[in-house]
Amino acid sequence: MRINKFLAESGVGSRRACDKIIEEGRVKINGKVCGLGAEVNEMKDSVTLDGRKLGKVKKYDYYIMNKPKGCVCTVKDDKDRKTVMDYLPPINTRVYPVGRLDYDSEGLLIFTNDGDLANRLTHPSNEIPKTYLVRIEGSIEENLLAKLRAGVIIDGVKTKKCTIKVVDEFKDFTKMHVTITEGRNREIRKMFESVGKTVVFLKRIKIGDLTLSGLDRGECRKLSAEEVEYLKNV
Question: What is the Cα–Cα distance from 47 to 52, expressed in whole angstroms?
Fold first, then answer.
């Protein structure tokens, strides 16, 4: 199988995250640094990451967290900032965050060592809907909402169509539910910036129909078997 799939099934991360690790030269097959697209025979070859031998995970674990602001979605941060891993309870298996929420954002985050599920939830071709509670400064005109729903250019690429529903309007700010099917870096913040609006609060509240189920900020729990099955088929 391809090396990124082997790494994902070994609990290292999603396939896209594994591609980055491979590009950094941290993965070896039979003692030799491998490149993207390398093939591995899981029955014969020895695969190491940073000198640690890897093997396929025998048991998958799945968690959901209400990520607070002020931490990053990485297993380890080179700037020594707090990471989402600091909020996980003590567990015996190695899991990692699926997708990302930026430092100043909060909300629903999934952790697992199931590489296939991680790939399913993060790969843009699967168009898994993710819903966010968004608060912007001031008001927003209907023509700007129509523009955002149809797609805007950010980082030189047009965003896919999205759903935006205004849920509260006040003099100083507006609250909306925004549902997107991509996961580009700071996508929603950049979308609103493109029409001259500033996002002051961003919280992911749903992936598909999966919600935070009353979890307080920083809290985490195991996903039920029914929730896992739903995510595998959403």
Answer: 8
Tokens of 138: 């001031």
CATH for the stretch 3-53:
3.10.290.10
Regarding pTM above 0.85, the answer is no
Architecture of the structural domain at 62-124+213-233: 2-Layer Sandwich (3.30)
Asked if 61 contacts 118 with a C-beta cutoff of 8 angstroms, the reply is: no
- 202-224: buried (b, 16+ CB within 10 Å) or exposed (e) per residue? bbbbbbeebebeebeeeebeebe
Task: Decide if 172 is catalytic.
Answer: no
Angstrom CA distances, 132 to 14, 27, 164, stand at 22, 36, 10
Q: pLDDT digits over 53-105, tens only?
A: 988 777 889 999 999 999 999 888 888 899 999 999 888 888 999 988 999 99
Give the active site residue among 80, 102, 172, 209.
102
